[in-house]
TrEMBL record, chain A:
Pfam families: FAA_hydrolase. Gene3D superfamilies: Fumarylacetoacetase-like, C-terminal domain. GO terms for cellular component: cytoplasm. Signal peptide: none annotated. One of its GO terms (molecular function) is 2-oxopent-4-enoate hydratase activity. This is 2-keto-4-pentenoate hydratase. SUPFAM superfamilies: FAH (SSF56529). Residues 63-253 form the Fumarylacetoacetase-like C-terminal domain. The keyword Lyase applies. It comes from Actinomadura physcomitrii.
Length: 266, 248
């Protein structure tokens, strides 16, 4: 089993290294626990290489996606400081394999969340502020041919993330009914609202806080939590520029570099 | 030559008997202007029975729907006072009702030009529209659905609020307390105010004007869902409170 987990991690790391998506890893791992073991193997490796953990992302937070993946729970992945880009920055082509974008509420913590079980009050007290975010998800697995095990193993299909610049306190925004739009050149590609994320983005964050204590990597002061998509995900192509607007929270942009001189894109 | 009166009579009968009919274009194709003539005659039949015009509804206001129907403009239908639902809505005279969350405008004075429409708005509210195609399986072409008064059946709205920017207002629709649809008003042409202007444009183009006291249903923020009997539906909009209806 351990060798299978190593093999799955090796396959995914190979895709990162080569820039060529790999086959799914579900042939090597059976359960969600196995999949998190693969993710953890990669986490240990990356932390050992000196990457700084900057937060977590929550995935599979919409009812439609949960039904499509036949799961009844969200999942999580690790965010590293080198995955964060400033508002409006351009991500060079090929940085994220098979990129897609989604607009989310980001929470930034000012206290650790280390209880076995947290209340919403604990979470609100621990949250310094919210920011609008664009998550650039990606998949190391060919054609996004993923099951729950595949995406969990693949760090919950995380890629990069862009954060807005104006912090908003939780009392100043209705995270349940904040409208969301994603546009490219003025064309609306996605819209939704906070309730699409497990009923409320804080619900997703609560699940995360409890889950991370169970697995021994609790949320810490300073962590950023990407709570989950507020509407449908949008495929990204080289040269695209996206703007996300979340009512009451502000806006944030991200650009994708055009193909490099060899015309090679991922 | 299409007989506008006969087509209107067919649709009117389908609605009154709560029995779906095959789409009209199966028998003989007709164009969009003819379809609006059928719609007008269909509504005239209601008015002759004592109903009063109470507003307009906009359709195909989402990009996805426009692409699906292969159109590049919105459509509209006419509302009558009889279509307004109270706290309770009887569905027994509907064929296959669906419900969707709406942004609703209240017209405060007659709208004489498209540029005039936003200043004529007296209030905004969250609301719902109950759709009921008179066609079998909700299947129709563009002229069919226009002739069928854009599937209009019932509508309702919550408390009026001061006019405001509604370009990205979150909306939630619950049935029996469980969320069934979530979305943003941005799904309505990017901003429901565009739909309002389109309503003024289409009304003026048809030789009508939006009248004081009329409502404009700007369009759906999400896909419609089947509406069962015995259901409690609540649509909530950020800063707009909610609109509710119980079906029987």
């Amino acid at each position: 089993m351990t060798s299978d987990i190593d093999a799955a991690a090796g396959r995914l790391l190979g895709a990162y290294a080569s820039g060529v998506p790999c086959e799914p890893v579900r042939d090597l791992i059976a359960t969600a626990d196995d999949a998190y073991a693969v993710q953890d193997r990669m986490t240990e490796r990356w932390l050992g290489e000196g990457r700084r953990l900057s937060g977590r992302k929550i995935g599979l937070t919409s009812r439609a996606v949960q039904e499509q993946m036949r799961v009844d729970s969200p999942d999580f992945g690790m965010l590293y400081a080198d995955m964060a880009v400033p508002d409006g920055d351009e991500i060079p082509a090929g940085t994220v394999l098979q990129p897609r974008v989604e607009a989310e509420v980001a929470l930034v913590l000012e206290h650790d969340l280390t209880h076995e079980r947290h209340t919403v009050a604990d979470l609100i007290r621990a949250t310094a502020f919210a920011l609008p975010a664009i998550e650039i998800v990606g998949s190391r697995i060919r054609d996004w041919d993923i099951t729950l095990a595949d995406t969990v193993a693949d760090n919950a299909s995380s890629g990069m993330y862009a954060l807005g610049n104006r912090p908003v306190r939780l009392e100043d925004v209705d995270l349940r009914l904040c409208g969301m739009v994603v546009e490219r050149r003025g064309e609306q590609l996605s819209s939704g609202t906070g309730a699409a994320c497990l009923g409320h983005p804080l619900n997703a964050a609560l699940w995360l806080a409890d889950t991370l204590v169970r697995v021994g990597r609790p949320l810490r002061a300073g962590d950023t939590v990407l709570t989950g998509a507020l509407g449908p995900v949008v495929p990204a192509a080289p040269g695209d520029v996206f703007e996300a607007r979340i009512d009451g929270l502000g806006d944030v942009r991200v650009a994708f570099g055009r193909a490099d001189q060899d015309g090679e894109v991922s | 030559m299409v007989d506008v009166h006969a087509l209107a009579a067919t649709l009117d009968g389908a609605a009154r008997d709560a029995r779906a009919v095959p789409k009209l274009t199966d028998t003989a194709p007709f164009d969009v202007p003819t379809a609006y003539a059928v719609q007008r005659e269909l509504v005239e039949r209601r008015i002759r029975r004592g109903e009063r015009l109470s507003g307009v509804k906009m359709g195909f206001t989402s990009r996805a729907k426009m692409v699906q129907m292969g159109v590049d403009d919105v459509i509209w239908g006419l509302l009558t006072d009889r279509m307004q639902a109270g706290a309770s809505a009887d569905l027994s005279d509907l064929i296959h009702p669906r419900i969707e969350p709406e942004i609703v405008y209240l017209i405060g004075r007659e709208v004489r030009s498209v540029a005039d429409v936003e200043s004529a708005v007296a209030g905004v509210a969250v609301g719902f529209e109950i759709l009921d195609s008179r066609y079998e399986d909700f299947r129709f072409t563009l002229p069919d659905v226009i002739a069928d008064n854009a599937s209009a059946a019932r509508y309702g709205f919550g408390a009026w609020h001061e006019p405001r920017d509604l370009s990205n207002t979150g909306l939630l629709m619950e049935i029996d307390g469980r969320p069934v649809q979530t979305g943003s008003s941005a799904a309505i042409l990017g901003d429901p105010a565009r739909s309002l202007r389109a309503a003024a444009r289409l009304a003026l183009g048809a030789g009508m004007a939006l009248e004081p006291g009329w409502v404009v249903l700007a369009g759906a923020a999400t896909a419609a869902v089947p509406l069962p009997k015995g259901a409690h539906v609540r649509v909530t909009g950020a800063g707009l409170g909610s609109a509710e209806v119980t079906t029987r």
